[in-house]
Amino acid sequence: MNPPDNASIEQRGWFSRRAAHVRAWLGQGPALIEKTPGLRWLGPKLSHPDFWKMSRTNLAKGAAVGVFFGLTLPFGHTPFVMLACAALRAYIPAAVLATFVNTPLTLPLIYWASFKCGDALFVASALPVPDGISSVLALTFCGSFVLGVGFALLTYLACYFGYKHVSGALSKP
Question: CA 48 to CA 82: how far, in whole Å?
Fold first, then answer.
């Protein structure tokens, strides 16, 4: 797919410009993995066209996978996202983009919410919590897993039912 003409992009609105850039980026397909040094080893496994075809279920699965790993892992999401997409036959670009829910600006809020959620889980279940730093890590991990599953489910539903609007905007020239 050829990159969009800059003159025609500037005449459109902000969303149309972003959609044109996303279409150009997604048009590269498996070549994206081939270009990335840390992901080249996944290239042969992820070159199947199903991973790069946007459909309602593939998009929803990919976004949900990305949000789950974005909320549960503080760094190093991409290889795990790729492997999960391979197992679920999910749309890889949506999964990779969805991991950006975890940015330096959102990281403190995400892990504060994870800690509070984990604390509420341990208090409600009356399980003993270890002392020291291990208690903070245990509470944060449990909470991030619960938040990851919950927000992944919400993301799946939002993408599944909002697919018509997204696919319409991305298919316009």
Answer: 13
